[in-house]
Every structure is written in structure tokens, then in C-alpha cells.
């Protein structure tokens, strides 16, 4: 029974929910089943062959120029403008649909959940026009290749990606004493220092608010990062992506969290990132977040200690942290305490029914109704993890309505009792199994499964 239960936990807690036969495949060695998914190549791309960030950025800028021209001509509803806008929207919807289809169909559920965690950790939200087309490429380019590599590599890749630079307004940040600032001042201009990215890197991405840094440290880091920017559309010789602008960089040495960083242009901020990545504060901050995501809203202290040690002993290698998570006894507790987010609920439902989402429109509308609009986290903090955010009575009623509609078209001629066994294995309670077996119709049985407490939690 222990192996059966551990197999169910491996697939439903560490993964994204069980597809038919998946729990059975994990029974021989539940931990080995997860460890085999930790590979140097990282997570699979969600949308292979899709336009990269440089192409998307060029398309966005072309649309903005078309719109500007159309506004001057008094014809914002012109066909070229509408077609360009539609193309950008279809790119964004296609990115998210591809990610959801990968989640619903992958055989590497742990890898995909791990990648989703890091994408949320380094949140870039589509709430800005300039970032919406870049969120998908950001995950493909800055997150997925690095999820089992060095944290420092993912930190640098995310911090230099145009999506992050534009989302947190770093591209426009100018050092107060830089050449650009001095030239602008002569002409009556006042380009300013922007601290958004520096602050979020310290507060959210690395050491965390408990690390003891000061506002002065944030300001100094922001000065070190000046010059980290994105190529401009009206300068064809500049890259459609990250570039360093030396004339916008604040000259001089910087002192940040007790360390001194010599003037080194682009390399100055890069050196700060390296130290932040290797900090014990970062190790603990990440350990708490991983434990909160996978195990409990209040992760056990022993689990936090194990993950912290794995990070530090492994030189910040995330494969070592993932291995420590799988090995930790605290991660295999019998009581499921994590309440699924709307995205997790939908993905696990598709997996239970052995189906895939087919249309971006219904997917986007459903997630918006459930409070988790695709690619649109409300702040750089990302989507919250705590159960209380997602299990309000109104939210449960909406999940129930979706479950009934989904079951009506997904149940077919399949026995819901068999689907329940495949979806939950040894985690299926006697009361839930009885209710499913007594359902008057197959769709009703499937909807009871999807709304059962053990399916809603992981």
C-alpha cells in the first residue's frame, strides 16, 4: 500500500495530475520516477518553432508604428492596424494554449510543474501591451532551458531578457551622472534612474525582504544596472533584444550589501547578480518558496533546511535542489494540503480525462472567470500560492459549473470509477469512490471526481 500511495503522491503532488496509467507506471519506484525527469536539458519547449522574442518585438513595434500613422490619419480601424493587432493577440493566445496542452499531455509532469514554478518566480505579466507578446518567448528562452541548471544562469537570462527589462521599466533607466543624463540636461531633459528591476531582483528573485538590505543598497544596485536596455526600433543596427548602453550607465564603484563593486560597465551589475545568486539568503528564500509550492502553505522547517543545504552545497544548481525535494520525507506526507490554482485544476482535469484543450478562447475565458487570467499575474510577485486565495465559496461554485460542462463533453462512454482510480490511485477516499459509483450518469460521476476534496488538493 505504501508504494501505491507514494506513486499517487509522486504523480499528483509533484506532477500536474495523473493521466490514465501514469500512477501504475510510477508504482515500481515513485522517487525514481521523479528523479528520471531531472535532466540537464531542462524543460521541453512549450511551443517549438514559434517566433522568438526578437521577432515578436519587431512585430510589436511595427504594429505600434502602424497605429501611430493611422491615428494621425484619423483611421485607427484601418485593415493593416486590425490585422497587425490580431496577429499579436493570436501569438499570445497560441503561446498559452501550447503551454496548457504541454501540461495536459506531457509524460514529465514533475519537470513541467518545476518549470511553471520558476516562470511564476520570475514573473513577467502581459498586463502591458509591450510585454504581452514577449511572455511566451520569455519562458521559452530565459526559464525552460535553465530549470535544472545553475540558478545564476536563469537569474541572468531573466534579468537581461527584453520582456523583463520592459516589464519593470529597466530599459529606460539612466544613471544620474551618466553621459546621457548630462547631455539631456543641457537640452532641458531629465531622464531618470528606475529602481523597479533592482528592487524586484533583491526582494522577489534572490535574497528576499528578510536579508537586511537597505534602500541605499537598492539604489546602488539600480545604478549598477543602468545601461541594461533593449535595442530601439528606429536604430536598425541595434539588436531586437538585450543591449548594454555605456552612455546611460552610471559611472563609478558601487557598495551593495557590504560588498564593493568596481566600475566595469555591463559587468558591474553582472557581478552583483553572481553574489546575490550565491548568497545564503537567496538559498533560504528559494527553499521556502519551493516548499510552499510543492508541500504546504507553511513549509516544514526541516524541508526548508534540506533545500537550503542542497542549494549551497551544490553551488546553486537547481537539479541538486530538485533531487533534495524528491528525497525529503516531508514532501511525501500523506495529508494533501496544497489547494490547486485554477490553472492546475484545469490541467489536472484534462489529464484525468486524457484530453487536451483545443481552443485558446474558452481556455482564456475560463481562467479569467476563475481569477487566473493567462499570463496576467497581478504583480511581479506572481500568482499567490496560498489556499485561501483560491477556495472562496464563489470560486468553488465556478469550478463546479466548469466541471459539469467539461464532464458533459469529456466523459463519453468511459467508466468514471475507472477514471477516478486512474486519477487518484490510493489517494481516492472511500466516500468519494462511493459517490462516484452511485452517480446516475457518467458525466455526473466525472464531475463528482473533479470536485472531490482529494482531487482539488494535491
Q: Give me the count of strands.
A: 4
Radius of gyration: 24 Å
Major beta sheet, strand line-up: 1-2
Give the averaged pLDDT, no decimals: 96
Shape from CA axes? globular
**Sheet/helix structural class:** mainly alpha
- Low-pLDDT runs: none
Q: What is the helix/strand order? A: HHHHHHHHHHHHEEEEHHHHHHHHHHHH
Instruction: Estimate the strand proportion.
Output: under 5%
Number of helical regions: 24
- Biggest sheet character: 2 strands, antiparallel
Briefly, what is this?
The chain has 458 residues and is mainly alpha-helical. Helix content is 57%, strand content 3%.
How would you describe this protein?
The structure is a single chain. It contains 24 helices and four strands. Among the domains are: 168-278, no CATH class; 342-456, no CATH class. It has 458 residues and is an all-alpha fold.
Helix-strand blueprint:
Layout: H1 2-14, H2 22-26, H3 30-35, H4 53-72, H5 79-105, H6 109-121, H7 135-143, H8 151-160, H9 162-167, H10 179-186, H11 196-205, H12 215-225, E1 228-230, E2 242-244, E3 254-256, E4 259-261, H13 266-278, H14 280-294, H15 301-313, H16 318-327, H17 342-352, H18 360-369, H19 387-390, H20 393-410, H21 416-424, H22 430-437, H23 442-451, H24 453-456
Antiparallel strand pairs: 1-2, 3-4
Helix pairs in contact: 4-5, 5-17, 5-18, 7-8, 8-13, 11-12, 14-15, 15-16, 20-23, 21-23, 22-23
Amino acid at each position: 500500500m505504501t508504494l501505491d500511495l507514494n506513486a499517487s503522491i509522486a504523480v499528483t503532488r509533484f506532477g500536474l495530475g495523473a493521466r490514465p496509467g501514469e500512477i501504475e507506471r510510477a508504482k515500481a519506484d515513485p522517487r525514481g520516477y521523479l528523479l528520471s525527469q531531472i535532466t540537464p536539458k531542462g524543460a521541453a519547449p512549450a511551443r517549438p518553432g514559434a517566433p522568438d522574442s526578437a521577432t515578436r518585438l519587431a512585430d510589436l513595434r511595427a504594429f505600434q508604428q502602424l497605429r501611430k500613422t493611422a491615428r494621425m490619419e484619423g483611421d485607427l480601424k484601418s485593415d493593416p492596424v486590425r490585422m497587425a493587432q490580431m496577429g499579436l493577440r493570436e501569438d499570445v493566445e497560441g503561446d498559452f494554449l501550447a503551454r496548457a496542452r504541454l501540461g495536459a499531455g506531457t509524460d514529465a509532469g514533475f519537470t513541467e510543474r518545476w518549470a511553471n514554478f520558476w516562470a511564476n518566480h520570475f514573473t513577467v505579466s502581459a498586463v502591458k501591451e509591450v510585454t504581452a507578446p514577449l511572455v511566451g518567448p520569455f519562458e521559452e528562452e530565459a526559464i525552460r532551458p535553465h530549470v535544472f541548471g545553475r540558478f545564476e544562469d536563469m537569474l541572468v537570462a531573466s534579468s537581461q531578457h527584453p520582456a523583463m527589462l520592459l516589464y519593470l521599466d529597466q530599459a529606460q533607466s539612466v544613471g544620474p551622472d551618466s553621459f546621457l543624463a548630462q547631455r539631456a540636461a543641457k537640452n532641458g531633459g531629465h531622464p531618470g534612474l528606475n529602481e523597479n528591476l533592482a528592487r524586484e531582483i533583491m526582494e522577489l528573485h534572490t535574497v528576499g525582504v528578510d536579508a537586511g538590505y537597505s534602500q541605499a543598497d537598492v539604489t546602488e544596485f539600480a545604478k549598477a544596472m543602468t545601461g541594461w536596455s533593449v535595442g530601439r526600433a528606429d536604430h536598425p543596427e541595434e539588436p531586437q533584444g538585450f543591449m548594454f548602453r555605456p552612455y546611460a550607465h552610471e559611472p563609478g564603484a558601487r557598495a551593495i550589501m557590504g560588498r564593493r563593486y568596481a566600475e566595469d560597465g555591463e559587468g558591474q551589475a553582472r557581478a552583483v547578480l553572481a553574489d546575490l545568486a550565491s548568497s545564503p539568503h537567496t538559498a533560504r528564500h528559494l527553499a521556502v518558496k519551493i516548499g510552499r509550492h510543492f508541500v504546504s502553505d507553511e513549509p516544514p522547517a526541516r524541508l526548508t533546511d534540506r533545500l537550503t543545504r542542497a542549494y549551497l552545497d551544490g553551488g546553486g544548481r537547481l537539479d541538486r535542489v530538485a533531487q533534495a525535494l524528491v528525497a525529503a520525507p516531508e514532501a511525501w506526507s500523506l495529508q494533501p494540503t496544497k489547494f490547486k490554482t485554477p490553472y492546475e485544476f484545469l490541467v489536472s482535469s484534462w489529464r484525468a480525462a486524457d484530453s487536451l484543450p483545443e481552443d485558446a478562447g474558452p481556455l482564456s475565458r475560463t481562467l479569467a472567470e476563475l481569477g487566473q487570467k493567462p499570463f496576467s499575474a497581478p504583480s511581479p510577485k506572481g500568482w499567490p500560492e496560498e489556499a485561501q486565495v483560491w477556495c472562496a465559496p464563489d470560486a468553488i461554485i465556478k469550478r463546479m459549473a466548469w466541471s459539469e460542462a467539461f464532464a458533459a463533453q469529456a466523459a463519453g462512454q468511459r467508466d468514471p470509477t475507472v477514471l477516478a482510480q486512474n486519477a487518484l490511485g490510493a489517494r481516492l477516499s472511500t466516500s468519494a469512490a462511493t459517490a462516484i459509483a452511485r452517480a446516475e450518469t457518467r458525466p455526473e460521476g466525472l464531475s463528482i471526481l473533479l470536485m472531490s476534496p482529494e482531487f482539488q488538493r494535491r
